[in-house]
Design brief:
By secondary structure, this protein is α+β, with helices and mostly antiparallel strands. The protein is built from 27 helices and 34 strands. A 4-stranded parallel β-sheet has the order 2-1-26-27, with helices on one face. The chain has a 4-stranded antiparallel β-sheet with strand order 6-5-9-19. It binds one RNA strand through α7, β11, β15, α11 and β30.
RNA sequence: GCCGGGGUGGCGGAAUUGGCAGACGCAUCGGACUUAAAAUCCGGUGGGAUUUUUUCCCGUAUCGGUUCGAGCCCGAUCCCCGGCACCA
């Protein structure tokens, strides 16, 4: 008899069978029993990597488990099919169109997914590069445009010189392009933005009801960066206007001794022209503007500034205070100008020391020992305290003063309460070919005109040269560019930029629920039945980008009236990375393990089992070839056991209700273990998504069965074994779908194991008559004793004190107390 | 600097509500089977001491605290990972 199962044969056979029977097709039903589990769809690079195998294995276990528990499960898959690699491949190889390249890759990746035995409903497959899909991406853009949520403006934007396109703030990491790690430049360009900032507060508040990892919510919170403060106007007499600043500390305004403008501030020209130092000042501004972004914005770099020669008036004190320019004030946050309070802000303090500006303390610590004396301050004091040198606000604490000053300023029209965000609007224009064209036509008469909804999609033209040149390749297609104005019928020009691919992926989860809808991106009824996604699974690297955008889109879609939901993903499991030798797998490090090789050597079930067993899903997983061997060994162990007895048990009709009545002691042990395992596996999947411990529980069960076999030898109870085998296979089915299906049929079943019901555990079976109680003396384990489970405390104590060990350790000592924890332990405390 | 997560055998990890630390797997050692090996099956394996089928001590990054009892709670420190950062 063979000691290893023929995984190649078995896996191929069942994959075909499942496909032929359309086993994983999802019917649309009312909301009641629906369950939507979704893994982040991949970019079709052409090959699956281990990270993919991990995320899809996790999703597949959940989908199969929920199905077996009687739910109507939606488990779809698709392709994030627009993007640069397709274009780069076309440029590099010259003779292949991005479309061809993309669809070729989709085909091979889909085959790999099928080889993994993933239970997708392929009839719902979507690809963002398909005109049937991007038509609706464009439709959403137009809806946003009409609702003032999409707008075009000129501003300094991030430019990646390698990708030759602009990037959103979210796509710039440490001043580098998120994709290619090239240092980004600044460019003044007119670009399309989506008004995500309108939803900043909702994006923050929505976190409350999300069952997401805390760290991810924190990341998004940091990214949104909400701060409450005031916008305050400082009059500048000489140019007869007012300089606005944003501050979170209006309570310190009596200590504002100077003002600082960003070198890009629009007032500068007026302020400095004609001043005796004008040339020096202009040279300084130029120098700062030429500074690299990194240098400019690093807190470690030196603060540099120059006096403009002008003064503003502190609106509360009436004092004249100098206006300076400095590198440490940024144009893209707040108003690009600050009131400087050196006594209570470390940055202002450092700058004031360097340029010898006045430092005036206006907050005094409650702790008198730390009393601040103006000229002797060594560092800024920014903690709590009470006000001094602040006229009628003296002696108020910081919080009271904030409110009082804010009220008064609002009344006198000096300033207004304002909330500021770090979050910027989402820049979606890309100067590249392989994306959804922005559906806008520019007309000399009518201006910026959206393409009418009935004319969508605006198709990508084929006759273009892809080589990036800083402007979109679409500019080179006359047939594309020239279009009639939808309003007046005159000749207009199309927008030539395409959309950021994150736009495509911000709503794909809604298309799956109604993929063939020709009239709308999806119908409201279907959304009601399926949306939101119950369980989303994907990499932590999307914590900010994709997940923030998708949440934003969902809120916009809600406001368009297409759903009533305002969060797309109720639960999110952020799965960890797959590492090799402690590092992320990458070509440059040469530590890549190719999934197809593992599939070839061990099969899909082994690959899935290992990846689920090696680590809990949210943690990083260290790849181990020996570990894969181990998982394979376990599956073979299951196979051998069933293979050996299947002829004996396949015709046995198990009497489910009666099974426990005739068990001998050995069988009873296995029977209890089986039901304990059912409980453990069910709870581990259902409540914790801890597949590693679920699998280890099944391993323990299999060990127990082997033990039973070797103890009983020729005296096996085959009806009981038949019962046990069935349950065992059901428990393992979500993890190893092919092997369990094969064995399921071998033991005499006709229909698929994956349509069967998840086993339930028998509460009576796992109840123990006797338990082992740990006996401690002064907290140290000294003995163990087996007693009846429901033994009264007093009786248990009596038994404990009769034990020799207990006598030994309590001899000649005073017993202070005895702690009894039923079913667990007894601790005798002595002195 | 601020915020969040983490640190357990040779390794991956378990301990779910403060109650037997190290489940399960890997690696390794021993036994069975074999002419032999592989595969398989059975068993040992945190460290130390010891009278070695015994008994005890130490042990969850470090130090301290709370508690009858701490891997888990509290305080301080060190280290690792992630996010944000001249954000006013």
């Amino acid at each position: 008899m063979a000691s290893h199962y023929d995984f190649k044969n078995i896996e191929g056979k069942w994959q075909k069978e499942w496909e032929n029977n359309n086993l994983y097709h999802t019917k649309n039903k009312d909301k009641k029993d629906n369950y939507y589990v979704l893994e982040m769809f991949p970019y079709p690079s052409g090959k699956l990597h281990m990270g993919h195998v991990r995320v899809y294995s996790i999703g597949d276990v959940i989908a199969r488990f929920k199905r077996m528990n009687g739910l109507n499960v939606l488990h779809p898959m698709g392709w994030d099919a627009f993007g640069l690699p397709a274009e780069n491949a076309a440029i590099k190889h010259g003779n292949i169109h991005p479309r061809e390249w993309t669809w070729k890759n989709i085909k091979s990746m889909k085959e790999q997914m099928k080889a993994l035995g993933l239970s997708y409903d392929w009839e719902r497959e979507v690809a963002t590069a398909d005109p049937d899909y991007y038509k609706w991406t464009q439709w959403f853009f137009i809806k946003m445009f009409k609702n003032d949520l999409a707008y075009k403006k000129e501003q300094a934007v991030n430019w990646c010189p390698s990708c030759e396109t602009v990037l959103a703030n979210e796509q710039v990491v440490n001043n580098k392009c998120e994709r290619c790690e090239t240092v980004v430049d600044n460019k003044e360009l007119e670009q399309w933005f989506l008004k995500i900032t309108d939803y900043a507060d909702q994006l923050l508040e929505g976190h409350q009801k999300l069952d997401w990892p805390q760290r991810v919510k924190t990341m998004q919170k940091n990214w949104i960066g909400k701060s409450k403060g005031m916008r305050i106007k400082f009059p500048i007499k000489e140019i007869n206007s007012k300089l606005e600043v944003f501050t979170t500390r209006p309570d310190t305004i009596y200590g504002a001794t100077y003002m600082v403008l960003a070198p890009e501030h629009p007032y500068l020209d007026q302020l400095i022209s004609g001043k005796e130092n004008e040339k020096r000042i202009r040279d300084f501004i130029k120098k700062i503007k030429d500074q690299k972004e990194e240098e400019r914005t690093s807190p470690e770099s030196n603060k540099e500034g120059i006096f403009t020669g002008s003064y503003a008036t502190n609106p509360m004190t009436g004092e004249k205070i100098p206006i300076l320019i400095a590198n440490y004030v940024l144009m893209n946050y707040g108003t690009g100008a600050i009131m400087a309070v050196p006594a209570h802000d470390q940055r202002d303090f450092d700058f004031a020391k360097k340029y010898d500006l006045e430092i005036k303390a206006v907050i005094q610590p409650h702790d008198l020992e730390r009393k601040l004396i103006g000229s002797k301050i060594k560092e800024a004091y920014s903690e709590d305290g009470y006000l001094i040198n602040s006229d009628k606000y003296n002696n108020l604490n910081v919080k009271e003063a904030f409110e009082a000053i804010a009220d008064d300023m609002e009344e006198k029209n000096i300033g207004n309460r304002e909330v500021n965000y770090r979050l910027r609007d989402w820049l979606i224009s890309r100067q590249r070919y392989w994306g959804a064209p922005i559906p806008i036509i520019y007309c000399n008469q009518c201006g910026t005109v959206p393409v009418p909804e009935e004319d969508l999609p605006v198709m990508l033209p084929d006759d273009v040269e892809f080589s990036p040149s800083g402007i979109s390749p679409l500019a080179k297609s006359d047939q594309f560019v020239n279009a009639k104005c939808p309003k007046c019928g005159g000749m207009g020009k199309r927008e030539i930029d395409t959309m950021d691919t994150f736009v495509d992926s911000s709503w794909y989860f809604l298309r799956y629920i109604d993929p063939d809808n020709q009239h709308l991106p999806f119908s409201k009824d279907r959304a009601r039945d399926w949306f939101p996604v119950d369980q989303y699974i994907g990499g932590i690297e999307h914590a900010i980008l994709h997940l923030l955008y998708a949440r934003f889109f969902t809120k916009v879609i809600r406001d368009l009236g297409l759903t009533i939901e305002d969060e797309p993903f109720t639960k999110w499991l952020a799965q960890g990375m797959v590492l090799k030798d402690g590092e992320k797998m990458s070509k440059s490090k040469g530590n890549v393990v190719d999934p197809s090789k593992i599939l070839d050597e061990y099969g899909a079930d082994t690959a899935r089992l290992f990846i689920l067993f090696a680590s809990p899903p949210e943690k990083d997983l260290e790849w181990s070839d020996e570990g894969v061997e181990g998982s394979n060994r376990f599956l073979n162990r299951v196979w051998r056991f069933v293979d050996e007895i299947c002829d004996e048990i396949k015709d046995i009709q198990v009497n489910q209700g009666q099974i426990e009545t005739n068990l001998d002691d050995e069988s009873k042990k296995v029977y209890r273990k089986l039901h304990e395992t059912i409980q453990k596996v069910t709870e581990d999947i259902e409540n914790r998504l801890n597949f590693n411990t679920a699998i280890s529980a099944v391993m323990e069960l299999v060990n127990e069965i082997y033990h039973y076999q070797s103890t009983k030898e020729d005296d096996l109870d085959f009806e009981f074994l038949s019962y046990t085998t069935e349950k065992l296979l059901l428990l393992l089915a979500p993890f190893a779908p092919h092997l369990t299906e094969e064995l399921w049929h071998k033991i005499g079943n006709q229909s698929s194991i994956h349509l069967d019901k998840w086993p339930e555990y028998n509460k009576k079976a796992i109840k123990r008559d006797q338990v082992t109680i740990v006996i401690q003396v002064n907290g140290k384990v000294r003995d163990r004793v087996k007693v009846d489970t429901e033994i009264p405390k007093e009786e248990l104590k009596e038994i404990v004190f009769k034990q020799d060990k207990v006598k030994k350790y309590t001899e000649n000592k005073e017993i202070i107390k005895t702690i009894v924890i039923p079913k667990k332990l007894v601790n005798v405390v002595v002195k």
